[in-house]
Amino acid sequence: MAQRLALQRLLSLPTRGLLAPHSRAFGTSAGRKNTFNVQDGSDFQDRVVNSPKPVVVDFHAQWCGPCKILGPRLEKLVAKLEGKVLMAKVDIDDHTDLAIEYEVSAVPTVLAMKNGDVVDKFVGVKDEDQLEAFLKKLIGA
């Protein structure tokens, strides 16, 4: 009981002043704001197809080893572009309908979309140089 009260008191304290002067508070990085998980078909329509910015769509699966390599690599490069391109992550097991609609037959499959149209795509893992070239082509740099 005493431990529970002590924990409640600790959790109710204001966070300001508890951090050391040189520490940073936790928050989302700029890169994470440009990357999002697709929730459903209408979310895909709103955030990908209707996006005013180019979007990289990463079709992946939790059980896919190469996806676990490609995903973070791609996210890092999208973050470096500071909002010039967005990244949508689509789990094919949760969104089979989207995978079928976009003819995804293997994972990882990455689509480059502009103005709602697929303008480029690749299947499999790529190294950072190839990914940078793919992204630069998409944004026209």
CATH fold label = Glutaredoxin
Which CATH first-tier class would you pick? Alpha Beta
Beta-strand residue percentage: 15-25%
* Tally of contiguous helical segments: 6
Tell me how many strands there are: 5
- The parts where pLDDT drops under 50 for at least 5 residues are 13-31
Rounded to the nearest angstrom, the distance between the terminal CA atoms is 62 Å
Radius of gyration: 19 Å
Class by alpha and beta content: alpha/beta
Shape: globular
Helix content bin: 40-55%
Order of helices and strands: HHEHEHEHEEH
**CATH homologous superfamily placement:** Glutaredoxin
Estimate the mean pLDDT confidence: 85
CATH architectural designation: 3-Layer(aba) Sandwich
Spatial order of the strands forming the largest sheet: 1-3-2-4-5
Q: Please give the oligomerization state of what you see.
A: single chain
Please summarize the sheet with the most strands. Answer: 5 strands, mixed
Number of domains: 1
